[in-house]
Amino acid sequence: MATPTDGISVDQPNDILNELKQFDDTKAGVKGLVDSGIEKIPAFFIQPQELLPKSSDIAPPTLQVPIIDLGAIHKDTGCYKQIVEELKQASDSWGFLQLVNHSVPKDLLDEVIQGVKEFHEGDKDVKEKLYSRDRVKKVRFASNLRLLSAANWRDTLTCVFDGSLDPSDIPPVCRDAIMKYREAILQVAETLYELLSAALGLPSDHLRGMNCAKTQLMVAHYYPPCPEPELTLGTSMHTDPSFVTFLLQDDLGGLQILHDGHWVNVAPIPGALVVNIGDLLQLVSNDKFKSIKHRVLASARGPRISVATFLNPSFDEKKLFGPIKELLSDTNPPLYKEFLVDDYIKAYISKGLTASALSPFKL
Ligand code: OGA
Ligand code: NI
Fold this sequence. Notes:
Elements: H1 14-26, H2 29-35, E1 67-69, H3 77-93, E2 96-100, H4 106-121, H5 124-130, E3 139-142, E4 155-161, H6 172-199, H7 206-209, E5 215-223, E6 233-238, E7 244-249, E8 255-259, E9 262-265, E10 273-277, H8 279-284, E11 294-297, E12 304-312, H9 341-350
Parallel strand pairs: 1-2
Antiparallel strand pairs: 2-10, 3-4, 4-5, 5-12, 6-11, 7-10, 7-12, 8-9, 8-11
The structure holds N-oxalylglycine and nickel (II) ion.
Keywords: Iron, Metal-binding, Oxidoreductase
InterPro entries: DIOX_N, IPNS-like_FE2OG_OXY, IPNS-like_sf, Oxoglu/Fe-dep_dioxygenase_dom
Pfam family, one: 2OG-FeII_Oxy
């Protein structure tokens, strides 16, 4: 019997439930299906028509998310101010940006992508042993974080760095790369939080002081080639519940964001890190910054590898969260009520992937 912790949503017809269970029991993920030579995708991967990509909804390729170059950040105050201004614009009108010259070496980024690929393409027993959706396990592997119809065409290795993760639980093929990458991301995050604080008109240490990178949830996705890519999605439309997300993607493309009613491709840039504002930062900024809907297309080309790192407060943070007081005024009243991180996580878990994590907290 499926329970909420094994992540199969029970609220669906029995035949679909059985198919999902059978698939889940293989513990081999979507990659296992592809390796078995299927030419048609199982019905539970088929998305409702209205959620499938339509060419009329795609923005012209000239429209691109802003690129922010951190190369000159320490050159002089003029450069610093310019970067803050660009970041402010990007966080407000796009919610997504690509960071370049961020100081994480390209070799390390390549090593992460390669290590994650080797894990997903490696020893079946290693993957089987890690196959779980139990939140108590800090390192786990599964296809679809929550398995339900319509499922996504991808498999994921999850690492939850919350202070209790034992690095030796991370598969050896990608362990070193992931540990080094995590350190590097935390460093870039320090700089980014400083710049975002300035972009909100706050002292530069304000966001760092809110402890919003304490927990890092890293999801290393593998999107196998799909025999019927027009019927499914790699990742359904959603916003990230995080404070900030760093995304490393390989060179295949497929990530799209919803900007002014059109889907904009986030074109891969070698060495860049995609950064997006999560729901929690939208909330504490009182909607000054935007958490934007995005999705990943399925493709006949693949595999595509990406690694999303969600920066979050500590899950047992006891401080109340809400719109930052210093940003509020008579003309900018709070749009959200205050809450504990734990309430936020519970609300997130009980909602579907596509619903916003913010609505329960709206005033
Ligand atoms: C995510 C996500 C995008 C990608 O994991 O939340 O949006 O390119 N991933 O895999
Ligand atoms: Ni996302």
